[in-house]
């Protein structure tokens, strides 16, 4: 067709049925959302527990979460401002009553200025997506959950809400 040897025509591809997305089970969520003992666990485990709670409570993509700054959290009005989204449209989402105390406690340990990232690397800079995906995978496996995808939290959020 490109060379003009044959007339141009379009091929219509059939639409494939989409399978139902896998989600975390209630038992897996119970294991993942059980608060670690802060006197015995490291900060990385605690931070990953907070991240797991955040992902399940908001349904945000992990890439959006890693761009979240402390001043994007409005505890007074129970809102979270998401500035980096897939469609590039900033948005406000509600902060659930169960997530707010978790974030407040975490920020008490985390410290930092209002312009700092909520979930950062060891130097306080923007965290690497792959690092956090691997961190979540290790955390899930350590809790006895074989599913390790951060995006499964998003599917679970959609199914459970």
End-to-end Cα distance:
50 Å
Q: Beta-strand percentage? A: 5-15%
In total, the number of strands is 3
Biggest sheet, spatial arrangement of strands: 1-2-3
Structure annotation, total helices = 6
Q: Any overview of this molecule?
A:
It is built from six helices and three strands; from the N terminus they run H-H-H-E-E-E-H-H-H. Strands 1-2-3 form a three-stranded antiparallel β-sheet, with no helix packed on it. It has helices at about 25-35, 45-60, 60-65, 100-110, 130-140, 150-160; strands at about 75, 80, 90-95. The mean pLDDT is about 90. The protein has about 160 residues and is mainly alpha-helical. Helix 2 runs antiparallel to helix 4, helix 2 (about 45-60) crosses helix 5 (about 130-140) and helix 2 (about 45-60) packs across helix 6. The protein is globular and about 75 Å long. Strand 1 and strand 2 form a beta hairpin.
List the helices and strands and how they pair.
Layout: H1 26-33, H2 43-58, H3 62-65, E1 73-74, E2 79-82, E3 91-94, H4 99-110, H5 129-142, H6 151-160
Note the main attributes of this structure:
single chain, 161 residues, mainly alpha, three-stranded antiparallel beta sheet, 6 helices, 6% strand, globular
Write a brief structural summary.
This protein has 161 residues and is mostly helical.
């Amino acid at each position: 067709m490109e060379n003009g040897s044959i007339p141009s025509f379009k091929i219509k591809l059939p639409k494939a049925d989409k399978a139902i997305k896998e989600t975390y089970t209630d038992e897996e969520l119970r294991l993942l959302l059980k608060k670690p003992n802060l006197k015995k666990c490291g900060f990385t485990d605690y931070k990953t527990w907070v991240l797991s709670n955040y992902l399940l409570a908001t349904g945000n993509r992990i890439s959006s979460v890693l761009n979240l700054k402390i001043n994007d959290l409005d505890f007074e009005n129970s809102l979270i401002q998401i500035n980096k989204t897939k469609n590039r449209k900033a948005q406000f989402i509600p902060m659930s009553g169960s997530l707010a105390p978790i974030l407040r406690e975490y920020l008490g340990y985390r410290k930092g200025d209002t312009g700092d990232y909520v979930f950062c690397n060891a130097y306080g800079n923007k965290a690497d997506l792959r690092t956090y995906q691997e961190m979540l995978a290790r955390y899930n496996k350590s809790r006895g959950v074989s599913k390790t995808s951060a995006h499964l939290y998003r599917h679970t959020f959609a199914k459970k809400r």
